[in-house]
Amino acid sequence: MANEKNLMAVPDARSMHTKKTPNLGGVGIFIAFSLSIMILGGLKSFEQFQIGKLLLLLAAITIMFFLGVKDDLIGISPRKKFIGQAMAAALVILFTDVRIQSLDGLFGIWELPYIISVLFSLLVFVFIINAFNLIDGIDGLAGTIAIMASTVFGFFFMLHGNHLLMLVSFILVGALLAFLRFNFSEENKLFMGDSGSLFIGFLLTYQSIGFLGMDTSGTLWFTMPNKSILILAILSFPILDTLRVFIIRISQKRSPFSADRNHIHHRLMDLGLSHKQGTLMVGLANVFVITVAFLIGDLNINIQFLIIALLVPILGLLPCSLAREKGRIKLHVPKLSRA
């Protein structure tokens, strides 16, 4: 349909692709996710309050989905995009009480007052949604990060009997696995587009906050890291990349939302890696950070935060340093004259 109606992503100066490509992959992901969650949610026979949470979640991601579709087709201003994101987030925060209620002692902060909790949760929703949207720059990267995050969250939801969030996690994984087949394809390539990245970013934030509020005091066969640290580890790449490009843009006296080629995935491509290789590198780095979060689970939460906060920039900014060094070497290679 995208080919027929010419609904394509057209390459520009900062694109990592050279030809027009359908960018409505999010439509397929959304349909697959929504139908599956409604059918399986109905078969599970959830309690009434859980059905209510499910319906409000579907309403919120529908807002995000249509916001993304409009942005893909005709464009939308950042202000309107933020308003839509805040509305969708407020829907689940205020009416289903999915919010950050405690930081588990991180920076000495425990229980948050209700108003602070609501505002902080709203800020986290908007930040993670846009952070996830910003990493959708090369084939497979956003889908792979989302699959890894949802798999880890789904595993914990399953262990602790939270079947509603378990369904959300694993259905999203299934829909994304189907999408990646086309995202990596050479002949039938399909981009996720904002129609996918916005509502998927919303679902990842929803899972994160749901996990943070979950009681994990039960005995497991492995050491359970502090939940807030594990969430930071799982979402470390989009968080780091977004903070990095925002700092660069602001230091250059530009809008933090202006477009450029300063993302980490751009630097990986500058090193000569293919899309699949770049995605694999980021994925392996993410697995490593998550593994470290488990290994240091017995330490004080602030020490855990310090370790992750030092480790993630070292791993994430290494490609940027290498790409810069490669650029310097190219710049200083003398050209041989034709004699």
Q: Which descriptor suits the 3D outline?
A: globular
Question: CA-to-CA gap between the ends?
Answer: 56 Å
Structural class: mainly alpha
Mean pLDDT: 87
Percentage of residues in DSSP E strands: under 5%
Radius of gyration: 21 Å
Query: Largest sheet, order of strands side by side?
Result: 1-2
Q: SSE string, helix = H, strand = E?
A: EEHHHHHHHHHHHH
Biggest sheet overview: 2 strands, antiparallel
Instruction: Name the helicity range.
Output: 55-70%
Number of H- or I-type helical stretches: 12
Count of distinct strands: 2
Low-confidence stretches: 335-339
Give an account of the 3D structure.
By secondary structure, the protein is mainly alpha-helical. Helix content is 68%, strand content 1%. It contains 12 helices and 2 strands; from the N terminus they run ββαααααααααααα. It has helices spanning 25-44, 48-73, 78-96, 114-134, 141-159, 163-183, 193-212, 227-234, 236-251, 264-270, 275-295, 301-332, and strands at residues 8-9, 21-22. A two-stranded antiparallel ribbon has the order 1-2. The chain is globular, with a radius of gyration of 21 Å. The relative contact order is 0.12.
